[in-house]
Amino acid sequence: MVNRQELIENERARRARKRAARAAAAADPVETAWALLGVQGTDTVDAIRSALRPLVTELPPGSGHGAVLHGALTGPPSIDLPEALRVTLAELPPAQLVANLVVLGQAGVPWFSELGLIRAMLLAEERPTVQAVGRLPEALLSGSAAWRRYLAVLGHPVRLTGGELAESCAALPLSLVDDLIDNGQVGAGDRPWERRADPREADYLAARLVPDQITSAQAAALGWPEAVSRHAYLAGAVETGDAVLDALAALYEGDNSDLFELRAALPAEQQANLRAVLDGVPVGRWPAWVTADRGLWRLLAAQWSAQAAADGDRDRWMDPRASDFHLWNAFRSAHERIVRGDLAGAVRQSDALSAFSAAEEPPALYDLEIRNLRAYLMQRPQGPEHRSGRLDLAVELLDADHPVISANRRLVEARLETPVNERESWENPFFVLGLTHGDPAWNERWRALTVEHRDDVDESARINDAWRRIHDAVGASGFFALPVEPGVIDVPAERSAVLVPSLAPLARRTATDESDLAPVRAGAAADLLDEFGAAEIDMTSEGGPHPR
Length: 548
Prior knowledge:
Blueprint: H1 4-26, H2 29-36, H3 42-56, H4 64-74, H5 81-90, H6 94-107, H7 114-124, H8 130-133, H9 145-153, H10 162-171, H11 174-182, H12 199-209, H13 216-222, H14 225-235, H15 243-251, H16 259-265, H17 268-279, H18 288-292, H19 297-311, H20 324-339, H21 343-359, H22 364-378, H23 391-397, H24 403-417, H25 429-432, H26 442-452, H27 457-473, H28 514-526, E1 537-538, E2 546-547
Antiparallel strand pairs: 1-2
């Protein structure tokens, strides 16, 4: 056990050593002054002076901070040296600030933290991306918003808050926003396009992140051929400039000549969708999602007709009970058969519609259309007992408060009251010419048909009679109108997107250069001085001030 006398002796010895050390230090006041600032060793002092010299040479020696820095080069440094140096550095441009901090830090200045030195060294690099320098220590991934933004555009896995991301997307050069997108810092959920003041830049960012939301006009303005072709296809264009889309467009016309190549070119999802569409054609039955998509109706109708033609079965009819598409196509098919002169086929399809109407309550519009269709066909000759049709039944069917239906009823009633031998043909003359009701091109069509049937006396007489009736009537109001609402037989022009491969995001079009990165680097450099502190001097110790 150490006794009291030994403790006293040890304390005396410690104080003696301390006095000797101070006496030795007092022999060199320069080293003493540097030691007070935390700088130990002649080599370190020389290195710091060498680092200070280029900075000091441009300062007037008479100025306050300049005098402090000049004095440190030749004599004992003032205890104000760290603050004077900090103020001087703060006045430098960002690039010079970074360069001087690196040199000072490497020289051994103790007032610049190790973390600050590493940050300065990263800022001094031309482009220290995560690919170039690897993953940084966690301590370097935190810091001010400016520092984290700098690392983010370089691909380092830092966290930016929602507000910081919004500010970045609004203020950064477009190329750096592209960097943030490529690095995974910015995604569709951040909606960066809403932050850009330039609408062209906004459209570009949207095209990169949410390509399906780009409009036709935006795609054209961007000069984005893939998106332009896609919009052209969806709008119903026959030719789009894209081989796959053109092959899909051909299906809407009943043309399956490129089907093998098309199937091979489509991704798996679209292949499955196409298979569901085409597999239902032979039987006229499709999954509910197919018939519910109005953008597929034109394709289904064309494929149905093409299949019937290929099978030699033009008389097959479509069951209107199956879906809205089936009802629409059944009515459209009956009208189409009337126009092309296939009255027997029209009657069969009309009978199916009549059965549907009797068994179920169709939508009001179709109820009118079906009754009107049946009334029109009731006027045709129906065997020896009804050579002039069933006009009485037609009148009954036309009992509805609708201007077109009422007009048709008056025509049938007038026909009913006209002696049989004085009646004109029961057919709408536009239909005889193979046109829809009221088509203004009736005269041109008549000329073409007279040439086509010049050797057929009966057909020529029928065509000429139709021309005379239209010509004498000066319009279509004197003939049985079918359909009631012309739009009901319109084929949807727009196409569905379910068969179209997904649109790949627009490829990046910007490149990041030093001028883009410089403002971000400058913002991060300004925060470096937060890592630069004054020396802490203990003024209460025995024998005068000393570093703590």
